[in-house]
Specification:
The chain has 3 domains: 214 residues, P-loop containing nucleotide triphosphate hydrolases (Rossmann fold, 3-Layer(aba) Sandwich), CATH 3.40.50.300; 220 residues, 3-Layer(aba) Sandwich (Rossmann fold), CATH 3.40.50.300; 28 residues, no CATH class. α15 links the parallel β10 and β11. Strands 3-4-2-5-6-1-7 form a 7-stranded parallel sheet, with helices on both faces. A 7-stranded parallel sheet has the order 10-11-9-12-13-8-14, with helices on both faces. The longest helix has 17 residues. 38% of the residues are buried. It has 616 residues and is α/β, with parallel strands linked by helices. ATP-binding RNA helicase involved in the biogenesis of 60S ribosomal subunits and is required for the normal formation of 25S and 5.8S rRNAs. It comes from Immersiella caudata. Its EC number is 3.6.4.13. It holds the Pfam family Helicase_C.
């Protein structure tokens, strides 16, 4: 083999200089850098979708979008695990729409090509709206149907008669429509399971098996989840063909700094006192999501807040689906600041022993001595939970925008549920905080009017939470309240709790349901013509009209506050912002009311000095 000559026509001493100067490692680095700088246009999406993305001010694709979209566009099955708020919805919606648009360029025959299955109705509504936004510039070519609304079978069949390209539904509704010959899955090309690990936990196992026998072989499957669990292995065996696993542990160091986590160890009575002080004195500023253990608990807390003039909304599985969606929408628009949510599904299936509990609950249905009967064979009274929506869920999948704080008024029963709850805040690079109340073992049950059974193991759950967050390099710090300064407010808290009786809770719960039945879609035109009447549709109004009203509790007198002001109630908290005095002064100068009453003898506010008498 002849040796190469250099510029001076002499044999070169190094036969392969190019390969040595450019090792493989040096080539890989710029490639990886290029991937991180990819834009949506470079992912191979339809230009109309890229235009819609630009309209929503999305600058660059997230990690899950950079990894999942190219694989999905190639027709590969994808099983993706990514944290909440990472952009999973766009990661499967965009390639699905792009594939449908590409097919319609050559074949315009109508058939349902995509089926998106979600565990809750709230998430179905969110995905449906995301599809509408992404298909804004190709709305004529993409038709979408949502099957989670409370409509009759005849109305649903009429919706499906238009042969939508994409159907968004829960597994139960999808199988019901397919079984009733309203939904045709014979030519299905794309099957998406969002929050896939929750699908079986919510009791959709039989529906999923029926759907698997209906969909054609070779359908492309995309599964999105926040955790990897045994449920995913079951679904993977049913639907997927050698899927590509994406376990995306993003570099969350920067985001972790923006999420501050605190806990307070206190008795049950002190929990209510601190909740009153935090929201009445606005120690936490911004929109807050408060989690409680059950529905009655949510109404008790709302009525308790009403005693102090604190406005809040209720969100639970007993409310109609349209009401729940409306509350979330208006909360995201900034109309409400506080939502009290009871996430019953998270409490039941969030624990590590969820599979065993689910099997026990399933086996005990219809058997004597089961959960619906007492030991002596005497049947229990029917529970109100039978009227609850089984397709309800708040702690996962729902996008609460600009949420400043998550307050675990009742600690969840597992570290996994805690992780999903706090994932509602500090999303998309914003700051946020999570505050949890923990009842020590020796304090459990001492305040009987407000004690609940789930708080008995709070300390054990907290230990698991600390271990779990420690693995993710996150810290949970104590939220230090000054108990000495809180004592001045205790009698007001006790007055409010005494007014919130069991009868008042029952009447408030009934009143809320009655009001939501009256707020139907038939009133839409009336309120368009009479916009001043819209105040009657607010969801944060008072429910406790029938209970004892105590007007003095709605105002905090200055003598109750410590000399140092509201800041003296907490010590070494760090993240939690407080109102500053200079902000109040600036607001007063700009013409904003300071909230103080006029002082007799003052120049500008004394009505006697500004009163003028006109002569006839």
């Amino acid at each position: 083999m002849k040796r190469k000559l250099d510029k001076n026509d002499e044999p070169s001493s190094t036969p392969k200089p190019e390969k040595e100067s450019n090792p493989p490692a040096a080539k890989e680095e710029p490639k990886e850098q290029l991937k991180e700088d990819l834009s949506f246009a470079e992912l191979g999406l339809d230009p109309r979708l890229v235009q819609a993305i630009a309209k929503q001010n999305f600058e660059k694709p997230t990690l899950v979008q950079r990894k999942a979209i190219p694989l999905a566009l190639q027709g590969q099955d994808v099983l993706c695990k990514a944290k909440t708020g990472s952009g999973k919805t766009a990661a499967y919606v965009l390639p699905l729409l792009s594939g449908i648009l590409k097919r319609k360029a050559t074949d315009s025959s109508p058939f349902t090509a995509g089926l998106i299955l979600v565990p809750t109705r709230e998430l179905a509504d969110q995905v449906f709206k995301a599809i509408e936004e992404f298909s804004a510039f190709c709305a004529k070519d993409i038709q979408t149907a949502k099957l989670t609304d409370n409509v009759s079978d005849a109305v649903q069949r009429s919706l499906l008669s238009n042969v939508p390209d994409v159907v968004v539904s829960t597994p139960a509704r999808a199988w019901h429509s397919a079984n009733a010959s309203g939904l045709s899955l014979d030519k299905l090309q794309y099957l998406v399971l969002d929050e896939a690990d929750l699908v079986l936990s919510y009791g959709y196992d039989e529906d999923m098996e029926n759907i698997s026998r209906t969909v054609p072989k070779g359908v492309q499957t995309i599964m999105m989840s926040a955790t990897l669990s045994s449920e995913l292995d079951t679904l993977k065996g049913i639907f997927c063909r050698n899927p590509k696993l994406l376990d995306l542990n993003e570099d969350v160091g920067a985001e972790d700094e923006k999420l501050s986590q605190f806990y307070v160890k206190c008795g049950e009575e002190d929990k209510w006192l601190m909740g009153y002080l935090i929201f009445k004195l606005q120690l936490i500023k911004g929109k807050s999501l408060i989690f409680v253990s059950d529905i009655d608990r949510s109404y008790r807390l709302k009525l308790f807040f009403e005693q102090f003039g604190i406005r809040s909304c209720i969100l639970n599985s007993e409310l109609p689906i349209n009401t729940r969606i409306k509350v979330i929408e208006e909360f995201n628009k900034g109309i409400y600041d506080i939502i009290i949510a009871s996430d019953e599904k998270s409490e039941i299936f969030g624990d590590e022993g969820a599979e065993e509990d689910a099997k026990k609950a399933k086996d005990s249905k219809g058997k004597k001595g089961g959960p619906d009967e007492k030991e002596g064979g005497q049947p229990k009274k029917k529970r109100r939970t039978q009227k609850q929506d089984n397709e309800y869920g708040v702690s996962r999948g729902i996008d609460f925008r600009n949420l400043a704080a998550v307050v675990n008024f009742d600690l969840p029963t597992s570290a996994t549920s805690y992780q999903h709850r706090i994932g509602r805040t500090a999303r998309a690079g914003r700051t946020g905080m999570a505050l949890s109340f923990v009842i020590p073992k020796d304090q459990h049950g001492k305040h009987k009017p407000t004690s609940i059974k789930s708080t008995e193991n709070d300390e054990k759950v907290l230990a698991k939470i600390i271990r779990q967050q420690g693995k993710q390099k996150r810290t949970i710090e104590p939220y230090n309240f000054s108990k000495k300064e809180m004592e001045a407010f205790r009698y007001r808290m006790n007055d409010a709790l005494r007014a919130v009786t069991t009868v008042a809770i029952r009447e408030a719960r009934t009143k809320e349901l009655r009001q939501e039945l009256l707020r139907s879609e038939t009133l839409k035109r009336y309120f368009e013509e009479n916009p001043a009447e819209l105040s009657h549709l607010r969801h944060d109004g008072d429910l406790g009209r029938t209970m004892r009203q105590q007007a003095h509790l709605k105002h905090v007198p200055d003598y109750l506050l410590p000399k140092e002001g509201k800041n003296a109630l907490t010590k070494d908290v760090g993240f939690v912002p407080f109102k500053k005095d200079d902000q109040k002064k600036r607001g007063h100068k700009r013409g904003k009311p300071s909230g103080r009453s006029f002082k007799v003898g003052g120049r500008k506010r004394d009505p006697l000095k500004t009163f003028k008498v006109r002569r006839k």
